[in-house]
Design a protein that fits this description.
- With about 325 residues, the chain is of the alpha/beta class.
- It folds into two domains: about 210 residues, 3-Layer(aba) Sandwich (Rossmann fold), CATH 3.40.50.880; about 100 residues, Homeodomain-like (Arc Repressor Mutant, subunit A), CATH 1.10.10.
- The protein has 14 helices and ten strands.
- An eight-stranded mixed β-sheet has the order 3-2-1-4-5-9-8-10. A two-stranded parallel ribbon has the order 6-7.
- About 35% of the residues are buried.
């Protein structure tokens, strides 16, 4: 998708939806496109299209919205966002409903689908979650399990991924999911910028909070083995020889195929792994930058700082200040 000049997002308008569950993802996507255009000289355009099945879909709260494009008129899209619902009127939806059929068709043609809160019911009704991992809002877990016994409901996870289907249990976890998707659809630098603008508070990363089904999401098993080895030995120096042995490829084949499916060389991938762990320590520990650099396997703090700034857009010390800016100290005055 990164090579596309346009990106189409279908935003479902459903009766009794929570409009806030759509507003934040859309604001984050617009910020991502704006930043990506400015910093990469890209001509990428974002086409957001409200999609509905009737003329009287209105959100909770008394706000009025214009009718969206009929689902019958949308035959191609890249991302579908399914909003959270108030008290889940989707429980009455039938699997043969045109909206369910539309969702199944878009998914079969390669679209990414994300649901927020009780929006997961729509994916369940469409049969897209049968045998798959999913989650929903905490107050609806028992009802969801009753309605969809074939779904592998993850009660202890706020985020799940099963191929190209993502579920966020709440509006807040939906924001975390958007950061991850922006990194996937654009690049890590763009995701870091959006995170700084919308949610710089100290929180666990998507990778550590999500229940991911079948990751990594590509079909190259040899490269998946190499990635798995890197995730287990991320504090060490890169060993192309060892990775080649594990993957059963020559070093040249490994480099070429690794870059093709991940978008990064093995060396870049490992450096970014180290930075992700360093980022967690910056957020959640009082270790010095030098100590974190050592734990992450960097030669020194300056090397860590250069790589982290290139990846995250700010120096490690500046990032730490930003994520802790909203935390009260023990001496805070109200």
């Amino acid at each position: 998708m990164r090579n596309r000049s346009d990106f189409h997002v279908s935003v479902l308008q459903l009766d009794k939806m929570l409009l806030s569950s759509l507003a934040m993802p859309l604001e984050m996507l617009h910020a991502a496109v704006s930043y990506h255009r400015t910093n990469t000289r890209s001509r990428l355009s974002l086409n957001v299209e409200p999609v509905s099945t009737s003329d009287d879909c209105q959100p909770v709260g008394g706000l009025k919205i214009a009718s969206g494009t009929s689902v019958a008129d949308i035959d191609e899209t890249d991302l579908v966002i399914v909003p959270a619902m108030w008290r889940n009127p989707l429980r009455k939806l039938d699997a043969s409903d045109p909206l369910c059929d539309w969702l199944r068709q878009r998914y079969s043609e390669g679209a990414v689908i994300m649901s927020i809160g009780t929006g997961a019911w729509l994916l369940g009704k469409a049969g897209l979650l049968d045998g798959q991992a999913a989650t929903t809002h905490w107050h609806a877990l028992d009802a969801f399990a009753h309605d969809f016994p074939d779904v592998r409901l993850q009660r202890d996870h706020l985020l799940t991924q099963a191929g190209r289907i993502y579920c966020a249990a709440s509006i807040n976890s939906g924001a975390d999911l958007m950061i991850h998707l922006i990194g996937t659809l654009f690049n890590n630098e763009t995701a870091a910028y959006v995170e700084q603008q919308f949610s710089p508070e100290a929180r666990m990363s998507f990778d550590k909070r999500v229940f991911t089904e079948g990751a990594p999401q590509h079909a190259d098993e040899a490269i998946a083995l190499a990635q798995s080895w890197l995730h287990q030995h991320w504090q060490e120096s890169l060993s192309m020889r060892r990775m080649s042995e594990i993957a059963g490829l020559s070093e040249r084949q490994l480099s070429r195929r690794f870059k093709k499916v991940t978008g990064e060389s093995p060396g870049q991938y490992l450096l970014h792994l180290k930075c992700r762990f360093g980022k967690e320590w910056l957020k959640n520990s009082d270790l010095s930058v030098a100590e974190i650099a050592q734990l992450c396997g960097f030669s020194d703090a300056s090397h860590f700082g250069r790589i982290f700034r290139r990846w995250q857009g700010v120096a490690p010390s500046d990032y730490r200040r930003a994520v802790r800016a909203k935390l009260f100290s023990v001496n805070s005055q109200f």
